[in-house]
Each structure stands twice: as C-alpha cells, then as structure tokens.
Target: Chymotrypsin-like elastase family member 2A
Amino acid sequence: MVSILSLLSFLLVVIPQTLGDDEACGPNQPKILQGSTGIIQSPGFSDRKNYPETIQCTYEIQAPPGQRVRLNFHFLDIETSSSCRYDYLAVYNKINETQYREAVFCGNVLPRDIMSLKEIFVIRFVSDPLITASGFNLTWLTTDMSLCYPEEFQCKNRKCVLDEVLCDGTDDCGDGTDEEGCDLPLTPAPPCGQPVFPPIEGADRIIGGQEVRQGSWPWQAELQRGFYSPNGHVCGATILNANWVLTAAHCFLDGLEKHRLRLHLGKHNAYLTDPTEQVRYIDTYIIYPREVNKKITAMSDFDIMHDFALIKLNAPLKFTDYVRPACLPQKDYELTVGSFCYVTGWGVTRGTGGNDVLKQAESEILDEADCSTEFVDFNSTTMICTGTQAGGHGVCHGDSGGPLSCKFGDHWEVLGVASYVTRNNMISGLCGVKNGPSGYARISTHIDWINDIMESFS
Model:
C-alpha cells in the first residue's frame, strides 16, 4: 500500500521518464538517473519484443542526500535458471564507490518492492547468447519513507505485516522472521518418517530419475543462496524437527555465510513458489564436530569423513502434510549390501529432464570397495556407498546434503547425507557414469553427536 500511495503522489506532479530500450546498453553505461521517478524496461519491451541476446545494460539511480531509492516491479520474464546463471537483473547498493549485491532476479515470479540502503541503486541487466524472453518493466522513485508503515514490521523477505501479529504463533511473514525469538510452545510433531502421500516405489532411472509424487518426501529441504530469485539452489537437506535441519558440511564451501542463505521446506517446483512451501533462515549452523558458523573456503576446513552440518532455523516450522520430520536410524545400524533405498534432490539432471522439480531415484547399497577413489579413502564406519555400477542414474551436482531414505515396515528412515556425489568428488566430475557410485555420510554412527548438538544449542 505504501508503494502505491507513494507512486501515485509522484505521478500527480511528474510524468516518469521511460528509459528507451538502448539508452543504458551502449559504451557510455551506466546511465545516470536523477529526479523523483522513472521507468526502466528491457530493450524491446515497449515494442513487445524479446530482449536481445548478449547484452549488458547498466543504470545508476541517484537519490537526493538523505533519501533512498525504491523499485516497484510491474513485469518480469527473464530466462529461468538456478542462481540466475544465464540471463539476470541484478540490483546493487552503491556505498562509497563500492557496489554491494542486494538481489538477483530471473524467471517470472514478480518481486516485492525493494529499497536501497543509501542514496544509490545500481541496476544491471545481462543476457547470454542463447535463450531470451519478454524482459522486465519497473518503476523507480526516490523517497524518505521506509518500505513499511510505522505500525508495520518489515520481514526479511520485504513483506510488511502489522506489529500486532508479532509472536502470535502464526508465520505471517512467510519466512518466520515475525516469530523469531518468541519462545512459544511448539505444536505437536506428527509421526516421523510417515508421509501422508506415499512415495512412488520401484526402480527408475535424479540423473535418469523420476519426478516425485508431491509431498511424498516431506522431510526433504532445500538450502538456497538468499540473493537469488526464484531459486539460488545450493544443496538438499533433511528436516529433523521443528527447529533443526541436517545437511552436509561441504554445502558451506565457497565461504557461504548464514545471512546469505535460506531454507525452503515443503517445496516441489524449483522455480515456482508452491502453496505448500515454507521459508526459513539460519539462526546458527554447526559444522562437525562443533564449529559454530565456521566460514568454509577450502576442503581442509572440514572433515570429509564426517561431512555433516546441523542448521538451527530462525523460527519453528509448522508441520503440515507436506512438511514433516524424518526418522533417524538406531545408533550404529548398518544397511545390508544389496538392499535398496531412495535418493532425492533438485540437482543437475544432465539432459534427462525434470530439472525444475524434485526428483527421486532408487539406489542400491554397495560394498565399500566400490566407493574408494583417489579423492577419498572410503570409511564404512562413517560413510555409506550407494548407487549403481552400471551407470545411467543417481545423484549429481546440487543433490549434496540431501537424504538417503530407506523403508522399514510402515515408515522411512534417513540413513545418510549426500556427501561426494560424482565419480571424483562433491564439486566436479561426472555423474551417473559406469563404476561411479556415490558416498553418503552415515547418520547411524553420528546419532549421539546430532542429539548432543541439538540439545546444547536449543
């Protein structure tokens, strides 16, 4: 409501300047914009044409001293990809000549209004040589108003909610930020490992896998980079209870810090917001054995033999038919070689289709000798070897951190966390190849560690 009123007040006194297609895309970029308001759109948008291939356009919006810049999106249709790696619209705060990334957009999910930290926003639109789309159209305005009204609370996702709903036990923000630190009693948890919607069982070929029945793996979570919309996929994860999620330590490689990450729960579609979806941020993460919020920039910063990280959420989850906790195995339980479990994730599919949805694949438990590589000396005490020696299906880049789910009677247990998922390691190498099974971090030998960490930090 603030954005509409503010925009209308400006429109009454000034006609916004519409930046024509190519003004900011030539050799003299960035295009400097000053004044009260204006419209920015992708090249070709006014003629209802797709934006061109291989283009870069840069705009620098400068507000008067003491004011900030607000962006209001009217239309967005930019080639969709994980972490917007091909075409994208990036927004940066410029402070003392240094640019700090605020957000990166692609796809067609319309963003909420976004506000600069200081007087300058830099907007950069980039396309690659391949696929193009309709583009974008947004209004910018300079203002001394905040994103939300004085009687409202600004959620981390830029949604505004009334102050009176804070700590009321309902996730009004949609990301838990209105329920942080409230110390309310948790709602009773449903039985672990028992999905309301049973998984599709039977052999299938995440490389060569199949789309899951929505909600059939309700303990599956996704770790994403928070800058990117609609999807900044990093890793999979497993819901343990309303406050804790388990993933792999190596998912924090590249120096990813907790404020740059978010968790998605109850998710099925990679690039759409599911109505069943919940979002949370990271309060604390612990790298095995007890490294709190440790910045990981190299393989030597964590123990590949114990590739675990526990994540405490910023606010409790609300359990539903689509968000439910996993069962963990008995301490020191060993899977039988030749038995079958399931692997799930949104990882790379190498042309086998379905990279926009959660997928599953049946995975055989193999002998430890099958998983020993030059990269790691496989340790059956702390690892599980699974996959297929024949190749053709299995996990791949992006499936790391996700669960290895095994059925026991009327319930499922998560026995492993995806660790090194390619023939070489967890970062590079081929997936789904002959003699290239995957290594999962073994949960049953870490039950005491999991319980101790959750108790110590709760």
